[in-house]
Amino acid sequence: MLGSLRFRLPALFLVGIVVSGVIAAAIALALFQSYAHKQLLVKLRREANGLTELYQKQAIAANDTGKHTLRFAPPQLERATGDKIFYVGADAFPGSGPTGLRQLPQDAVDWRSGKTRTFEFRPPGFKRTYLAVLQPLRLAPGSAPFGALVVATPKTEIASGLRRLLERLGLALIGGILAAAVLGWYLSRRITRPVLALSAATDEISRGHYDVDVPEVRGGGEIGHLAQRFREMAARLGDAEQQERNFLMSVSHELRTPLTAIRGHVDALREGIAADPAVRAASLDMIASETTRLERLVGDVLDLAKLEAHRFTLLSEEVDMTRLCEQAYAAFGEEARRRDIDYEKRFDASPTIVTDGDRVLQIISNLLSNAFRWTPNGGKVELELGASNGRVSVAVDDNGPGVPAAERERIFRPFWSRDDSGTGLGLAIAHELAAALGGRIELESEPGEGSRFELVLPAARRE
Ligand SMILES: Nc1ncnc2c1ncn2[C@@H]1O[C@H](COP(=O)(O)OP(=O)(O)O)[C@@H](O)[C@H]1O
Ligand SMILES: [Mg+2]
């Protein structure tokens, strides 16, 4: 569950949101803190400035007149500003008691330097730390200060502002996380649904069920591509398995037929049923021809298996294609005469190529033998040799029944034969051989008119 994509994607999404939220909040807090600190100092300085001026004026007046007149009450000031106001300095400040100002011990802060200062301190008798601004008091500009005013505000002021901000940020973060969770959950479901379907389909396939249903993925993309290819792969695996089964069944069937015939004749001979020498000779002939058929069949199956497994050695020799075609052509001359078939050859070129001559001859003979088998007596068969564009082509034309469109691909499969006496291996072998030689077999056919099987080979074989 924890390792599943459906969990991990939204989790990743959430972690991303939380991390970025926390970082953003931390930055916002730090910025806020320094801003609040600065603002507080600005306010304190302004207040300190104003107050110092007031107190200074009074101090000067008191100094001049010898009597003290206070026109404002510090406790009210403190209440109004929320800040604490202290006095530190010489007792000479007239009427320090009646001013109502809290007095700090002389050595609590350094006020004699006469400079405005900002600092943090804990006034005696107070529990909290204060942020303070000290402003010196003078009787005349440029003279030494007789004391100083300290305007202080508790540092917790900043902290409480921070807490409020933190609360809001926390709320925003929780809202963001909720929204991200919903979105992440929805998105990851959209992404993982086809992936999960694919993974379920692979399970089916590994159990040998190739007929799986891979759902369509909307919008394409990588997963759509994967699903499409997966569908094709499953179909191909299914086909391959079907073909393998067919192949085995066909091979055993094909082997059994001649074996049954041979067995019957041998039994008859052994039991002495056929006493007549002529019948015995006929039996032996049957056995011999069935054995030949078996031999050829086994040889073909072996050839095909080797070709399909790519365990087939091919020669590389200079082959005079004209001579080769003459040889293939001549082999059927006798049959053509006997069956009154119009048998012709047309050699438009005399190429020599590097290939395996025997195998090429095997392909051409195969095509010719098919043409003769399917062409009716009195029909027409033609062998053509041509060369163009770095390719050599040998075509066999006939005016037999042709191949229906639906069968054009099937006839190249092993054991597919329209007639009972054939094995259906001829074209399969020819097809594989042509591919092994770097070429192919092309078929043009008009059902009812005839067929044209064309072997196309490269003039120079690539290794
Ligand atoms: N020249 C042709 N004209 C019509 N059909 C053909 C021709 N050559 C091959 N075929 C079709 O292709 C099938 C497979 O041919 P092949 O592989 O040589 O096996 P086989 O000759 O043993 O039947 C044949 O059974 C036939 O239906
Ligand atoms: Mg054949």
Could you characterize what this model shows?
This protein has about 475 residues and is α+β, with helices and mostly antiparallel strands. It has three domains: about 5-160, Beta-Lactamase, CATH 3.30.450; about 220-310, Signal transduction histidine kinase, dimerisation/phosphotransfer (DHp) domain (Helix Hairpins, Orthogonal Bundle); about 315-460, 2-Layer Sandwich (Heat Shock Protein 90). The chain contains nine helices and twelve strands. The chain has helices at about 5-65, 75-80, 155-205, 220-270, 275-310, 320-330, 335-340, 355-375, 425-435; strands at about 85-90, 100-105, 115-120, 130-135, 145-155, 315-320, 340-345, 350-355, 380-390, 390-400, 440-445, 450-460. A five-stranded mixed sheet has the order 2-1-5-4-3. A five-stranded mixed sheet has the order 7-9-10-12-11. A two-stranded antiparallel ribbon has the order 6-8. β3 and β4 (about 130-135) form a beta hairpin. α4 (about 220-270) packs antiparallel against α5 (about 275-310).
Describe, in short, the structure shown.
This protein is α+β, with helices and mostly antiparallel strands. It contains nine helices and twelve strands.
Q: How would you state the average pLDDT, rounded? A: 87
Terminal CA distance reads 52 Å
The small molecules bound here are:
adenosine-5'-diphosphate, magnesium ion
Strand content: 15-25%
Uncertain spans, ≥5 residues at pLDDT below 50? none
In the CATH hierarchy, what is the class of the largest domain?
Answer: Alpha Beta
Number of strands: 12
In total, how many domains does the architecture comprise?
3
Largest sheet: 5 strands, mixed
Shape: rod-shaped
Topology pattern, helix = H, strand = E = HHEEEEEHHHEHHEEHEEHEE
- Percent helix range: 40-55%
CATH architecture term of the largest domain: 2-Layer Sandwich
Helix count equals 9
| Arrangement of strands in the largest sheet | 2-1-5-4-3
